[in-house]
Amino acid sequence: xxxxxxxxxxxxxxxxxxxxxxxxxxxxxxxxxxxxxxxxxxxxxxxxxxxxxxxxxxxxxxxxxxxxxxxxxxxxxxxxxxxxxxxxxxxxxxxxxxxxxxxxxxxxxxxxxxxxxxxxxxxxxxxxxxxxxxxxxxxxxxxxxxxxxxxxxxxxxxxxxxxxxxxxxxxxxxxxxxxxxxxxxxxxxxxxxxxxxxxxxxxxxxxxxxxxxxxxxxxxxxxxxxxxxxxxxxxxxxxxxxxxxxxxxxxxxxxxxxxxxxxxxxxxxxxxxxxxxxxxxxxxxxxxxxxxxxxxxxxxxxxxxxxxxxxxxxxxxxxxxxxxxxxxxxxxxxxxxxxxxxxxxxxxxxxxxxxxxxxxxxxxxxxxxxxxxxxxxxxxxxxxxxxxxxxxxxxxxxxxxxxxxxxxxxxxxxxxxxxxxxxxxxxxxxxxxxxxxxxxxxxxxxxxxxxxxxxxxxxxxxxxxxxxxxxxxxxxxxxxxxxxxxxxxxxxxxxxxxxxxxxxxxxxxxxxxxxxxxxxxxxxxxxxxxxxxxxxxxxxxxxxxxxxx
Length: 549
Ligand code: ADP
Fold this sequence. Notes:
Mean pLDDT: 94
Radius of gyration: 24 Å
Number of helices: 16
Low-confidence stretches: none
Strand content: 15-25%
Distance between the termini: 70 Å
Oligomer: single chain
Number of strands: 26
Bound molecules: adenosine-5'-diphosphate
Largest sheet: 14 strands, mixed
Structural class: alpha/beta
Helix content: 25-40%
CATH superfamily of the domain at 12-207: ANL, N-terminal domain
């Protein structure tokens, strides 16, 4: 017997309709590429996203055709999110920090029809347009009078001129909730990038989940700043969850330096912000240097790479901001776990609570996870045993776009498919996940594993260290030994021996790095994460000190 409830598909268009009807006057503030601040509302976004949908119809885009973006976080990008997906097309957010060759490859692989870009990416578009064979229209996200003459880009139109003649009335189509709605290519540190293809259903379910109290706890009373880019797994789903709760949204545009982000937080009374650790590092540095304090920010979600305990402590203790450490990946839309305490933890002493907050957190309802050994068998949840982390759920990929890479799933005894995350982790008795490392970054020393994340976290807890990256270097006896590359804070001093001594008592003796390499900068990839592959290349000729042999 089937239930007798209404069979209404979960569609992205319902999010924007809801936001317009119930929270139409909530503000959307954007710092634009032009440098000024732009203000609109959920009603404004809804009306203009319908114009986008009409423009796509006039351009004769078919259902499921891809519309790409190379854009910062801003209101026009948000209008595209809703206009493109709502009308049944697929929004393909491209990471502009990728190499131009990779961008051209991705646009062709996705068979993008239209590409919308912020003017700051015009040089990039000029470099790649001739190689993008499927794109028939280029849209510059600007006013008509800002469109550069003689750009050399064919079929170029300004966004405002493109949507101006269109009606702001549009009947969002009914469709199967499993229809594709968005796509995002993984960073592709090895081989060609592969695309996760999200559906309306997966996106709406993820939006519900992300807003839950033990996840981002988003409400209509919040002013939310996604510093995490909309080209980086849909800004962790915030543009969708924000419509679902009707909060104010604040978009930083291209201004991601510490000063700009801090000023935006203060001026727009931001209560909740989200970003990767590298962005927060810049902001905390700026605040320290200028003795600044927040007046409204009360929580921030930090993820994408391990958040160093020193940063969690700085936010918490110095600035009174609650840090929610999160873990996820492109293939998971991206949220998997988020760290909030349980009732039984509330009576614990502060240091024990802090130790829990350092972990990546508990699974969100909708994400099943487990750790397995080399034999594929489940490992215990004891907080010590580490293994390969597998996940499944309605917002986890089952395969990549165009079947690239074959069937990625691992089947269990019941035939259910689990996605191997490529991460090595422990899970404790209470279900708190802790990422040990990416499986390709973990250091294998004398048959034991050393977590490069642990080694980095200790280094950045030293007052003189701004950034650290630990890699394994081949060793004749131990297989691999850890060395740590560090960037000093401006004006700060620390010697190799002082830093090595700092490890004493903070980790097992055999896990202490064999050497410290002082570098000017550590290579950062397109999503703000440390590029260990590049660092290994840079340190290709590096030799361990002989005393370590
Ligand atoms: P995203 O685009 O969301 O950053 P990617 O697919 O580029 O996702 O990378 C996902 C990987 O990033 C994870 O598999 C994991 O290795 C790493 N990662 C994400 N969040 C964390 C975290 N909080 N701590 C440690 N590693 C993390």
